[in-house]
Design goal:
The complex is a heterodimer of chains A (about 475) and B (about 240). Chain A has 15 helices and 13 strands. By secondary structure, chain A is an alpha+beta fold. Chain A folds into 4 domains: about 1-80, no CATH class; about 95-190, Beta-Lactamase (2-Layer Sandwich), CATH 3.30.450.20; about 195-270, Orthogonal Bundle (Helix Hairpins); about 270-479, Heat Shock Protein 90. In chain A, the strands form 3 sheets. A 6-stranded mixed sheet of chain A has the order 7-9-11-13-12-10. A 5-stranded antiparallel sheet of chain A has the order 2-1-5-4-3, sandwiched between helices. Chain B has 8 helices and no strands. In chain B, α2 (about 10-45) packs antiparallel against α3 (about 50-80), α3 (about 50-80) packs antiparallel against α4 and α7 (about 160-180) packs antiparallel against α8 (about 185-220). Chain B is an all-alpha fold and about 240 residues long. The interface of A and B includes residues 121, 134 and 397 of A.
Chain lengths: ~475, ~240
């Protein structure tokens, strides 16, 4: 019924429905009076008097409706739109994904859209800006704007725990209120992380690529010169040289592949991955695919996996790459006929995820190479890869995830990697808001641990608001 | 820390003063953080001007500390805070002192950077930067914990100070080896050693702040021994 009325209101002249309602009410009143008279409660004289009064009232209203309806034909469209104009602006502000804040006198946050509340982790509104945003330059600009000075643009960067570059636009707004402090400051925080990152990565990529490609290129050109000169007619040397050249080009190809993969990972490092991955299935896949490589060197790969799938939030291809890099490394740095042990674990708290209870040796060193901000509620899916190789000296541990870093003596080994594997792992893990730790003992082997957050923690916060709608929180992994 | 003090006092000015105090300390923390971060940038980019800027901005940190101390004394004298309010005041006092020390250490790093820039670039400044970023991350997390009153972050930093020590020990050994190999870099190497030591001290101050935050929020002290990295015989 309300629906029909609304439609009428839009289509008809503005006043008519209201007045028609009055006529209907009058008629209803007359009907009630008529019933009362029929049942004998009311005297006929009173009935006629009252109904005449109702009828004349209705008639007067009807007349005014006829006279006023015509000239104000345009009003209905404007009227419902006007009160919602402010509301519309507010709704738009709420939906804008750029954090926007209004700062009042004394640096108090008066308004903040959801994006701003999420970025600064604001609870209830009305806090002080300096408590949530500790950037001295932004605060200075805001207090200048509150004094009515010109707006400014400030850039700032936070490098921990996750790197981000933000450009803050501060603009003074004068409110039409009386009192000593009519100035407010509008603060818009624009995220520029990706462009900054792209800029720096181009520079890094060029530097790394040119530096690392120089060695194989130099040897290639050396062999080409030899083949054109002294070894031109030496059948045997030519074969051998071509073999070496093939190896060198292969190495260059691997290097370029890794560099490209690294820059791809870096590019979207601050975008959270969506989707869920079964860590157990990925680990199995990797073990199967690396089987031939292990067999070739007579290495046994044993896996202890849980009985149920280990669901984590992540990008399947990237998680696959992480596990593959770790297991490949373990096989590579195991002695011939050695052992590689892989284990997976589900639903671990941070401390247990980072390092297991047992140490691999009495004097083993442990180090967290990358870790998410500490949150006691988060739970992780864990993969650990343990080899029994030479182990890594304590002093090299912090440098493991550095690009092109190789522990001494590895450079000359025939299976030398590009030095990018663990850097890639670190970047992927950081993107997933997971962690990456190492434990090693020289002579006793090395154990790498990767832990990635489970979707449950995020589903929990999401259902806090919509708990009433969905009685049983279903983890996205099951859906 | 805003949560426990907000809107629970009969005298509203008291609540506001406590909130203002927390905000001042957070501002000071932001400044200290930016000093450390800029000092590290100055090392990485060999930027002497930025280093000079850090040295000059440290004065502002000292002024802020004096302001905060004055605020606290006023609060104690006029309001006689009890229980969690008292803890908030004492915590602010202690944290301000720690932050002031962090500022001094950043200033010292900046001074040394200016001298380092006169010598040839060393490969090891990359390691310094990595250690610095770790320390900076710890500082950021404890200050976040202070502002939000959630002790999870503070506890996390408290337990992970040995990561900083591990970095420091690694750097120490590497520097010693490099200096033994090439006497020419003993000068700049010594500066790097002190810079690393300063960063390690900043990490310790961050741990101190974590302890204070824990105390202010829960009222109990973190008594258990902090996990220590392997002993290495470095000073």
């Amino acid at each position: 019924m309300t629906n029909g009325q609304n439609k009428d209101r839009v289509r008809l002249a503005p006043d008519r429905p209201r007045r028609r309602d009055i006529v209907i009410t009058a008629a209803l009143g007359m009907a009630v009076l008529f019933v009362l008279m029929v049942t004998g409660v009311l005297a006929p004289g009173a009935y006629i008097g009252a109904s005449l009064a109702f009828a004349s009232l209705a008639f007067v209203y009807f007349l005014t409706a006829v006279t006023t309806a015509q000239p104000r034909g345009r009003m209905p469209v404007a009227e419902p739109a006007r009160p919602s104009e402010d509301g519309l602006a507010l709704t738009m502000l709420e939906k804008v994904s750029v954090p926007i804040l209004l700062i009042g006198p004394g640096g108090r946050i008066e308004q903040a859209n959801p994006a701003a509340r999420a970025l600064l982790a604001l609870g209830a509104e009305g806090g002080l800006l300096s408590t949530s945003l500790r950037q001295p330059r932004v605060l200075e600009a805001v207090s200048a704007a509150l004094r009515g000075e010109r707006g400014t643009v400030v850039e700032y960067a936070t490098l921990a725990p996750i790197e981000s570059h933000v450009r803050a636009y501060v603009e003074p707004i004068r409110l039409p209120v009386a009192g000593p402090m009519p100035w407010r400051a509008m603060l818009v925080l624009a995220d520029e992380t990706s462009s900054k990152r792209a800029e720096r990565m181009r520079a890094d990529f060029l530097a790394n690529a040119s530096h690392e490609l120089r060695t194989p290129l130099a040897s290639l050109s050396g062999f080409i010169d030899t083949l054109r000169g002294p070894a031109r007619d030496d059948e045997e040397a030519r074969d051998r040289f071509l073999g070496i050249m093939r190896e060198q080009t292969e190495r260059m190809r691997r290097l370029i592949d890794d560099l490209l993969s690294l820059s791809r990972v870096e590019m979207n490092e601050h975008q959270l991955p969506v989707g869920t991955v079964d860590l157990r299935a990925v680990t199995r896949d990797v073990i199967d695919s690396l089987g031939p490589m292990a067999q070739a060197r007579n290495i046994t790969v044993s896996a202890t996996l849980p009985e149920t799938p280990v669901e984590i939030t992540g990008d399947r291809d990237q998680v696959h790459e992480v596990v593959e890099n770790l297991i490949e490394n373990a096989i590579k740095y195991s002695p011939e006929g050695g052992q590689v042990e892989i284990s997976a674990d589900d639903d671990c708290a941070r401390d247990r995820a980072e390092h297991p209870a047992d140490r691999i040796g009495e004097n083993s060193a442990r180090l967290l190479l990358a870790g998410p901000p500490f949150d006691p509620r988060s739970r992780f899916g864990v993969v650990r890869v343990r080899d029994h190789g030479a182990g890594i000296d304590r002093r090299y541990l912090p440098r493991l995830s550095e690009r092109f870093f190789r522990v001494d003596g590895q450079k000359s080994s025939p299976t030398a990697g590009t030095g990018l594997g663990l850097a890639i792992v670190k970047h992927i893990v950081t993107r997933h808001r997971g962690g990456f730790s190492v434990e090693s003992e020289p002579g006793g082997g090395t154990r790498f641990t990767v832990f990635l957050p489970k979707p449950a923690a995020r589903a929990e916060t999401a259902t806090e608001t919509g708990a009433a709608a969905s009685p049983a929180p279903v983890s996205p992994g099951q859906a | 820390m805003t949560t426990p003090v907000q809107g629970h006092h009969i005298v509203r000015a008291f609540s506001e003063e406590l909130e203002q105090l927390t905000a001042s300390v957070a501002t000071m923390g932001g400044l200290a953080e930016s000093l450390v971060s800029d000092a590290l940038d100055a090392i990485a980019a060999r930027d002497s001007d930025l280093a000079l800027d850090v040295i000059q901005r440290d004065k502002r940190l000292d002024t802020l500390q004096r302001d905060i101390e004055r605020q606290i004394i006023r609060l104690l004298a006029l309001r006689q805070p009890l229980a969690s309010d008292l803890r908030v005041c004492i915590a602010a006092l202690k944290i301000a002192a720690d932050l002031e020390r962090i500022g001094d250490l950043a200033k010292n790093i900046a001074r040394r950077t200016r001298e380092l820039n006169e010598a040839e670039p060393l490969a090891l400044s990359k390691s310094i930067e990595r250690m610095g970023r770790l320390v900076q991350g710890h500082l950021h997390e404890v200050l976040d914990a202070y502002a939000s009153g959630e002790i999870g972050g503070a506890l996390g930093v408290w337990q992970r100070d040995d990561d900083v020590d591990e970095h420091y020990n690694t750097l120490f050994r590497e520097l010693l080896v490099c200096m033994a190999e090439d006497p020419h870099i003993v000068g700049p190497g010594a500066h790097l050693l002190f810079i690393a030591k300063n960063l390690e001290r900043v990490g310790d101050h961050a741990t101190n702040i974590a302890e204070v935050v824990h105390y202010a929020v829960t009222g109990t002290e973190l008594l258990a021994d902090r996990p220590k990295g392997g002993s290495s015989g470095t000073p």
